[in-house]
Amino acid sequence: MPLSELLERRSRAVDDFAEAASVGAVWLSLEAVGEAPPKVKAEVKEYVRSGRLDLGGGAPTAANVTMLSAPDLQYTGYFSSSIFRAVPRSGPPKAPAAAQLLATLRPQLEATREALRSGRAVVTLVPGDILAVMTSAPPEQPGDASCSGGFDGGGLQLGSQTFDYIDCSNVADYVSLPALLLAAVPLLSPAPHARLRTESMVAWQAARLRNPSLGLGAFVADALAGLPLPLLERLFGLRLAGAAPLPAGRGALRAEWAPAPPSGSGGVTAGGLLLDLLPAFQRLVSKHATALPVTGALDEAAPLALAQLLALAAPDHAPDLLRALIAAAAGGGGVIPARLFEAELLTHVGAQAGSASGPLVRVTYPAKPGTALWQYKPDAPLLLAVSQEPLVAGQPVAFKELQHLVCSFAYDEDAATAHWLTPEAAASGAAGSLHVTLCVLSDVGAAATALVAVGQSAKLCTLRREAVPAASAAWRPLAAPPPALEALDMDLLRELTWRLAAAAPAGEREWRGQACHAAGGAGAAVDVLAPGPLPAALEADITARVEGGALAVTVTPKQGGGGGAGAAVEERFVVALPEGCAGGRVTSVKLSRRLGLLTACVTAEL
């Protein structure tokens, strides 16, 4: 369609049907220009009405494509819908509006043109899944970005280069902030000036509707789904450099992330990492998102985001860490039993560590839901349930009936077809007799959630399978994994996992402890595992202090504290500290009484 015809249709629609929307769009742009001469304001009104900017000389500019959806002008709420809201004006105050905008833009455009002509900058536009492009491992041969014919990434395969600046717009509103940060971290340059920019419009506005007093820091912390900011800095050298609302009433939040200088391990131990990650794991896995309020467009991170975090930070230890997290989450409540995601998550971390159980295949499943999904909210999470027997469409599913669940899969709505990655052995042979069914996680009451079958069950052995090369299943690794995590001692977590699985008789359990130097000898980190759950806070005090060159952990019963069996007598356990820490002091303690796990940081000797 010629531009002139497109503009004519838009103009007729705006004039006939959307006067109120047009007035609102004009007001938003006028608010952005503030105090301006009448001539400039008239130009702004004409720009909004016509969808183009008059640069003089009788040459019209191209239409502003973000405002072409007449009659409702649905995108006018976003600052990018108007150049006057997106670009600050400069130049003489009485100059025409276009001249003021060009005074700001011309130096930037000239610098960009020169960079492109000289080859210092390259622009590549790629349709497809941006997360798949960002997380795909670089080609084995070094070089620039190239087209590789990837399944999900639109054919683009980035090279091993890093970037000084990554602008993610508000993609996090639709793929979650953890998923976006983990995809971008390996691509961000470690240079001090490098910046990763994320924005939120949908999620930020929805959160403010629910809680008008919500602060920026609290919103970012919640968007991270329980992942502590200090942990992101220790593991990935990524810090939050700042967050602020976008100006001129744009209803959006912008956060900037920057490389952080290496801080060593900061006392990272296997037990400490488990306690840091457990809240996020319970939120992403066992407390899987149910209804997403207000907008219908918010997105929780998938459980796979945590598997990617572990595969990035500690690829060799990721399977053990996942098993420990799944075992630890089992007694922590939640909508879905964490064990049901174990097979899927271990498949993905195994692929990164080169320990996958055999070749991988991509399975295609025609779900055939018909109209069954129409009655559920558009944002209700979809899951694939694998079971011994076929499930009845339209009926709730008991978790005890399931072998496992798949949460990370591509779903083609038009074809009602799902695609996911799995070991070939899990879709053939004896496992091929299992059934897969599309399900929806739906609210059934004020605080209750049910998994409901909506697709037609199909045997795995009857579905189409395509071999997936190991290289294409690998995620992009960090340029330099955290040194402290390469030497994690996993024995204590393996013991914890064994105990939680009830594989260790109670009579054979005993206190366990391990200590390690922090990076640079700046202290020590200590993990202590009790024989079983520790008494509740009302029943006993638990202290950790340095005594006689060791960390002493003491469980002291309280008078009248309930008299539980575990609180009857005082218990004490000591762990020898590494050289140089015997005269230090305890600076922080993390404790899970339910797990019987304590981790402490001790300073070096003064």
What do you see in this structure?
- It is a single chain.
- With 606 residues, this protein is α+β, with helices and mostly antiparallel strands.
- 30% of the residues lie in helices and 20% in strands.
- The chain contains 18 helices and 22 strands.
- The strands form 6 sheets. Strands 8, 9, 12, 13 and 14 form a 5-stranded antiparallel beta sheet that branches. Strands 3-4-6-5 form a 4-stranded mixed beta sheet.
- The chain is globular.
- The low-pLDDT segments are 68-74, 142-155, 287-299
Helix content: 25-40%
Structural category is alpha+beta
The best one-word shape is globular
Strand content: 15-25%
**Count of DSSP-assigned helices:** 18
Largest sheet properties: 5 strands, antiparallel
Q: What would the average pLDDT be, to the nearest integer?
A: 80
Q: From the alpha-carbon coordinates, what is the Rg to the nearest angstrom?
A: 28 Å
Distance between the termini: 76 Å
The counted number of beta strands is 22
Give me some keywords for this one:
globular, 18 helices, alpha+beta, 30% helix, 22 strands, 606 residues, Immunoglobulin-like
